[in-house]
Amino acid sequence: WSDIPLHLGLQTNLTLDYIKENVRTCVKDYGVKCIFIETIQSVFNSETEGNTKEGMEKICHELKMLARELNVAIIATSDLNRGTEYRDGMEGKRPQMQDLRGSGCIENMADSVYLLFRPAYYKILCDEMGRDLRNIMEVIVPKKKYGQTGEVRLEFDSATGFIKDFSI
């Protein structure tokens, strides 16, 4: 891992222009192949034009065009709405595409969507088969343009945030 270059941008008020300029510089100067944006809504909150739907559509579209132009992966996390808080049971607490804030344009523009679910966060400690869920994270893939959708369970260490393959 020590030979993998990592460049952190710690700008708090992200704008599309700032992202585009810095991504182009990182790709050109350092050969960066993957960009991570912590919460796409943080970009939206810094943009001033348009309403929520129009602003989010613009951001999603611009990021997708930037990824294509530079042949890089852009991975953006998204806030969830509070839908899971009002649903009951394990199935009710599992995130769905409609729980993504700005889900319409995210769903349309994204090549892949991954939803993370930790049952223990909702005090769900075992599944219907009685299996312990305290150290489990489910990765739910409701959309994958070039592959299969589905789910996978991983082992999650909440003390360190470390995730590893898990076999049931």
What can you see in these coordinates?
- The longest helix has 19 residues, at about 50-70.
- The strands form 2 sheets. This protein has a 4-stranded antiparallel sheet with strand order 3-4-5-6, with no helix packed on it. It has a two-stranded parallel sheet with strand order 1-2.
- The mean pLDDT is about 85.
- Helices cover about 30% and strands about 20% of the residues.
- The protein contains 5 helices and 6 strands, in the order αβααβααββββ.
Short description:
Helix content is 32%, strand content 21%.
List its traits.
alpha+beta, four-stranded antiparallel β-sheet, two-stranded parallel sheet, globular
State the end-to-end distance: 29 Å
The computed structural class is alpha+beta
What gross morphology would you assign?
A: globular
Helical content stands at 25-40%
Strand content is 15-25%
Using only CA atoms, what is the Rg? 18 Å
Order of helices and strands: HEHHEHHEEEE
- Could you describe the largest sheet, including whether it forms a barrel? 4 strands, antiparallel
**Which regions are unreliable across 5 or more consecutive residues at pLDDT < 50?**
none
Secondary structure blueprint with pairings:
Layout: H1 16-30, E1 34-37, H2 40-46, H3 52-70, E2 73-76, H4 89-93, H5 103-109, E3 112-117, E4 136-144, E5 150-157, E6 162-165
Parallel strand pairs: 1-2
Antiparallel strand pairs: 3-4, 4-5, 5-6
Helix pairs in contact: 1-3, 2-3, 3-5
